Amino acid sequence: MIGAMTQATTPAMTPAIAPVIGGRLRLGEPMQRHTSWRVGGPADRFYLPGTLEDLQGFLRRFAVPPLTWLGLGSNVLVRDGGLRGTTICLAHSLDQIILAESTLLRVGGGAGAVKIAHFAAKAGLAGAEFLAGIPGTLGGCLSMNAGAHGGDTWSLVEWVEVIHPHGEIQRLAPRDFQIGYREVNGHGDACFIAAGLRLIPEAKDQVMQRLRAWQEKRAATQPLEWPSCGSVFRNPPGDHAARLIEAAGLKGYRRGEAEVSSQHANFIINRGQARAEDIESLVAEVQARVEQQFAITLQAEMRILGEAQHA
Questions:
Q1: CA nearest 21: which of 4, 2, 5?
Q2: In the Enzyme Commission scheme, what number(s) does this protein have (predicted)?
Q3: What is the pTM for the complete model shown?
Q4: Which single residue of 34, 61, 230, 308 has CA 20 to 30 Å from 284?
């Protein structure tokens, strides 16, 4: 059942929802608890479904628009004023992974990318190792065609399932979308809730060895001890965002407690008490400085959501 709410509800709301819909609904939920940058103001309504049926029922009867879909919060910056409408978090709920066929995984949209990579490796299936370097869920990976080490999410996809704002579920093929580098168009307001990932048989030990090597490289080259969103900017054609940012002399540059990492220039880290405003301002400053020096406009990978905090 829907759990206790963080703010008082109207007398009509609680009895109307609680006996009918499973999951947990919270009001005024601080988004810093749900984003990897550890920043963000409150979500008006924050819903965590227990099952797909919970989610369908909630969407059909109780969701207040606009809808914001969230996984592990690793590729978003939620502004200090928070999120209006309803935020739906799929992480740790729609996260089942099963071997549907000998080389096909059926993966829920809330499954973590690292979990998918390890499941595949243990099953003796290759092709998903790059997912171990992505700190998000499958749903987020699908929505932006996340990738690493030369691999990308949609190169594995045989089919996807999406859920529409009123609860309808639809199965689609890759040809139904416009897929590019860190960009996917064609799903509109729908959210990815599952996918079939086609992989390649290979000796388990070899796949695990490659996966561990990539994880060790990630640990050695990225500032994993600090809150961040992962890579902030897309790599421009023929170049790397990190190289341009470093060449612009911006490693270690700060706005408040937000800092361009001295370890990896395409990471902006929260050194403890950064605000979303600090991070957004630093993102804009990096873009301006790189454009001024190299005439290249860096495009952000992450999405900026919500409202600025009013004075």
A1: 2
A2: 1.3.1.98
A3: 0.90
A4: 34
Q: What would the 3-class secondary structure string for the chain be? A: CCCCCCCCCCCCHHHHHCCCCCCEEEEEEEHHHCCCCCCCCEEEEEEECCCHHHHHHHHHHCCCCCEEEECCCCCEEECCCCEEEEEEECCCCCCCEEEEECCEEEEECCCEHHHHHHHHHHCCEECCHHHHHCCCEHHHHHHHCCEECCEEHHHCEEEEEEECCCCCEEEECHHHCEEECCEEECCCCCEEEEEEEECEECCHHHHHHHHHHHHHHHHHHCCCCCCCCCCCECCCCCCCHHHHHHHCCCCCCEECCEEECCCCCCCEEECCCCCHHHHHHHHHHHHHHHHHHHCCCCCECCEEECCCCCC
Does residue 254 carry a catalytic annotation? no
Q: Which of 73, 106, 130 is nearest to 194 (CA)?
A: 106
Per-residue pLDDT, 10: 32
Residue 291: Cβ-neighbour burial (10 angstroms; 0-12, 13-18, 19+): middle
Catalytic residue among 38, 84, 182, 234: 182
* pLDDT tens by residue, 58-79: 999 999 999 999 999 999 999 9
Q: Determine the residue type at 233.
A: F
Active site includes 182? yes
Per-residue pLDDT tens for 215-240? 998 899 999 999 999 999 999 999 99
Identified catalytic residue from 29, 129, 259, 301? 301
Count CA atoms within 13 Å of residue 73 on its CB side.
21
